[in-house]
Write a structure and sequence with these properties.
single chain; about 300 residues; alpha/beta; Purple Acid Phosphatase, chain A, domain 2; 5-stranded mixed sheet; about 25% helix
Length: about 300
């Protein structure tokens, strides 16, 4: 065999082995980091804009691969008013553009345009419900791959009787089934959603509504999670409650609620801990996280 063909043959064999190895060992030894930030509640207030800009500077110094949100980017558009909604989304989009890495956005309840009874628009308006979010930030549900991991951003919000509730609709369920069919069963998977799939919030802070402690935030939660039974669902990243928790279920899936950029009450206090966001470090199929506190003690007016 001539030297050229021998070298080409060895090179082809090496590439074949490398490709096979990467397919059968998804995520192995690859390293990356990302930020998960939720409940930002950006609005036209000098204090909020200043603090959020400081958060952006903090993230830009971390050299992460990307940012993932947990919803409620703006505060808020549920009462309609196109002019106000456009101004809020434009402000957030302008600030978001200053982040040096890709930002993957999630739908929150405060982005549901014009759904409340006092709204000046109805369901025939193109911006109604998901329309304004889609116009500014893209699809309300989608997936992407990064260094051996599969990330799924879900829209867990629906509307009935002029109020929101938690549900993954049939169209999205069908999309999710088809999406997961393309994912190797050994690939680590992460979900981002605004409402919690699993949370101890009501156990720690019970309400007078006795049924509230037993009712899932997302009505068809079990149906959704059942779709992942043959996959390596490592992470479910959640928001909405403005508090921090990490629930490890059967040492298989971590349901992590990410605190709040805006604190609780929004931009006026730290009722359930300081304002902040999560920094994730990933190596292969394993991850670790820490809560990054930021912010001054002053509050928005």
């Amino acid at each position: 065999m001539k030297p050229f063909y021998r070298t080409a043959g060895v090179l082809f064999f090496c590439l074949f082995v490398l490709n096979t190895f990467s397919q059968h060992h998804p995520g192995k030894e690859q390293e990356f980091s990302f930020v998960f930030m939720t409940d930002l509640h950006v609005k036209h207030d000098p204090f909020v804009v200043s603090e959020f800009s400081r958060l952006i500077d903090t993230i830009n110094k971390m050299n992460v691969d990307f940012v993932l949100t947990g919803g409620d980017q703006v505060f808020d558009v549920m009462r309609g008013n196109v002019k106000k909604g456009d101004s809020l989304f434009s402000l957030y989009k302008e600030l978001k553009a200053k982040i040096n890495v890709p930002v993957h956005s999630c739908m929150g309840n405060h982005e549901l345009f014009g759904i409340y009874p006092e709204s000046d628009i109805d369901s025939t308006h193109p911006d109604y419900k998901y329309g304004m979010f889609t116009r500014y930030l893209g699809k309300p549900y989608y997936s992407f791959d990064h260094k051996g991991w599969h990330f799924i951003v879900l829209n867990v919000l629906d509307v009935a009787d002029k109020k929101y509730f938690g549900r993954v609709d049939e169209k999205q369920l069908e999309w999710l089934k088809q999406d997961l069919e393309k994912v190797d069963a050994r690939t680590p998977v992460a979900i981002a959603a605004h409402l919690p799939f699993v949370s101890s919030f009501y156990q720690v802070y019970p309400t007078n509504n006795t049924t509230g402690t037993a009712t899932p935030w997302i009505k068809n939660r079990d149906e959704v999670l059942q779709l992942f039974k043959n996959h390596q669902l490592k992470l479910v990243l959640q928001g909405h409650t403005h508090w921090l928790e990490d629930i490890n279920v059967e040492n298989r899936t971590h349901f992590i609620t990410g605190g709040a950029v805006a604190g609780r009450p929004s931009w006026r206090g730290n009722r359930h801990g300081p304002r902040g966001f999560l920094l994730f470090s990933v190596k292969g199929n394993h991850f670790s996280w820490k809560y990054i506190e930021y912010g001054t003690p002053e509050a928005a007016k």
